[in-house]
Design a protein that fits this description.
Elements: E1 3-6, H1 12-20, H2 25-33, E2 35-36, H3 38-46, E3 52-56, E4 66-74, E5 81-84, H4 97-105, E6 110-113, H5 114-124, E7 129-131, H6 132-140, E8 144-151, H7 155-166, H8 174-184, H9 188-195, E9 198-201, H10 204-219
Parallel strand pairs: 1-2, 1-3
Antiparallel strand pairs: 3-8, 4-8, 4-9, 5-6, 5-7
Length: 225
């Protein structure tokens, strides 16, 4: 098993869940070695150097992937996928979905995603940014799915893993919260606050949202890797 791990706070509950999940130690070690930003994992999964990952939702359209109903979902505000106001338009190389979403929503400015975006939001405040999750929800009355769990092999294991995670209420130990706070430069209380904006289960609305997003991206000539 070769699972790719997005190294962002938005998946911290899943990372904590994986630490205590029963699986071979070699598999757990592999997860720690196969981590990176969404755009990197998009390429790793496409090249089959890993067999599963939460990849950019825009890339989940590829027919070679099998998809599970686990995603990185914002039902409104997301706080970590932003466009900075009053700046020249600039894409974030770490994300495919967010750059495309900016274009679909007709926003100008610098795209900032992930922990760097959350840190900037906490420092500069709401008025400095467009929150892409919020604007999508206001415009289409749907949650936005930024990433989706996809796999190419070991399907029975990943289906069980995802099912177990989605029915588990994960409590983040204080020592892990402190470690992440130190490495990200974000206070533990702010990490806990931020995670309230993220959910993971994909129901009918979330699936409809992904389909709508991909349809709009195709009309703008987006081509998956």
């Amino acid at each position: 098993m070769k699972f790719g791990k997005i190294d962002y706070l938005n998946l911290l509950p899943f990372h904590v869940f994986l630490k205590s999940y029963r699986m071979p130690n070699a598999a757990k070690m592999a997860i720690e070695h196969k981590k990176g930003v969404p755009s990197k994992l998009n390429k790793e999964l496409y090249a089959m150097r890993i067999d599963a990952a939460v990849i950019s939702s825009i890339q989940s359209r590829h027919k070679k992937y099998k998809k599970l109903n686990f995603g990185i979902v914002a039902k409104g505000d997301v706080k970590s996928v932003l466009v900075r106001k009053n700046t020249p338009t600039k894409l974030d190389p770490a994300s495919a979905s967010s750059n495309m979403l900016r274009k679909i929503l007709g926003l100008n400015g610098e795209v900032v995603i992930g922990d760097r975006a959350l840190k900037a939001y906490l420092k500069d405040g709401d008025d400095s940014f467009y929150d892409l999750g919020r604007i999508w929800q206001q415009k289409y009355n749907l949650p936005f799915v930024f990433g989706r769990f996809c796999y190419t092999n070991n399907g029975s294991f990943y289906k069980t893993l995802v099912d177990d995670f989605l029915k588990t209420k994960v409590k983040i130990p204080q020592y892990i919260l402190q470690d992440y706070a130190k490495s990200r430069g974000i206070k533990p209380s702010d990490i806990k606050w931020y995670l309230n904006f993220i959910s993971y289960k994909m129901g009918k609305k979330e699936q409809k949202s992904v389909r709508m997003f991909i349809t709009k991206a195709r009309k703008l000539n987006f081509k998956a890797e």
